[in-house]
Amino acid sequence: MTITESTSQNADSGTVSESLSSNYERDPDQLKHSLLLACRCAQLADEFRAEDTVVLNLTKITPEFDFFVITTGKSRRQLHAIVEEADRMMAEQGSKRIGIEGYDTNHWILQDYGDVVLHVFDTEYREIYDLERLWGDAEKVDWKAVLEAQT
Questions:
Q1: What secondary structure letter does DSSP report for 94?
Q2: Would you identify the CATH topology of the domain 3-150?
Q3: CA 86 to chain centre
Q4: Cβ neighbours around 32 below 10 Å, total
């Protein structure tokens, strides 16, 4: 089954279009909710002054999860602040964390919510893991445009 969900927004700068489609069976409403949560995680990281925040749409690649949020922090304190606030926000939205890795390290913290996986790296480990290259077939989501379309 293929799921296609589109949102469009007309603006002076042009039309922003985001398509969600999947090679794996997923509930369309849940997929929209997952996208919104991933974009909110990205926004939160941006508000905490993380760098190079991206959201990858993995729905065409794997049935395991829908979106990766990948971002870079400059210090252990910043990494922890991002993941702790993301965890609070996700819990408020009804998405409970099912796994966490790396919380006791200074380099990389992963929080798994099933549909959304948040990766917060320091600069060195982001380059080492290079998830954008590893998941190079994934589409990048314009998370700012998705959030703008919600308002």
A1: T
A2: Beta Polymerase; domain 2 (3.30.460)
A3: 11
A4: 15
